[in-house]
Specification:
- The structure is a single chain.
- It contains five helices and five strands; from the N terminus they run H-E-H-E-H-E-H-E-E-H.
- The protein is α/β, with parallel strands linked by helices.
- It has a five-stranded mixed beta sheet with strand order 2-1-3-4-5, sandwiched between helices.
Length: 128
């Protein structure tokens, strides 16, 4: 007897996992853990350097530099269930900081990129 299905055990497991978390995956499991959102084009170069720095710490990160409004990009990050968004404007570039937003919450404040990386690595390691 042959048994054939369209989905294998791995696909069924992923489906069950997504259903369990309602597609709102925890930080350690999220495909994109951090989204960097530059407010203006003048902050883009800083954001590219920040992206490389975050990637070098084995954190999955993307840069959203689309020509959309800031509110629309933040809302899209929420809808895509990305755990953390870093909003970067001229003030953050001048102070070498990032403005951190956590999914489902308001702005968490402004911190240094090194402190953010340290905090998020700890959360990932602790499966937070």
């Amino acid at each position: 007897m042959l048994h054939r299905v369209l989905l294998g055990s791995l696909e069924r497991f992923i489906g069950a996992l997504l259903e369990h978390y309602k597609a709102d995956l925890p930080l350690w499991l999220a495909p994109v853990q951090v989204l960097i959102i530059p407010i203006k084009d003048s902050a883009k170069e800083y954001c590219l350097g920040l992206k490389k720095k975050i990637e070098s710490n084995s954190i999955r990160v993307q840069l959203d530099d689309r020509n959309e409004t800031l509110d629309k990009r933040i809302r899209q990050a929420e809808l895509n269930k990305i755990p953390y968004s870093l909003v970067v404007g001229d003030r953050e570039v001048a102070a070498n900081t990032v403005s951190v937003r956590k999914r489902g919450e308001k702005n968490l404040g402004v911190i240094s990129p090194d402190k953010f990386i340290e905090d998020i690595k700890k959360l990932i390691t602790d499966r937070g």
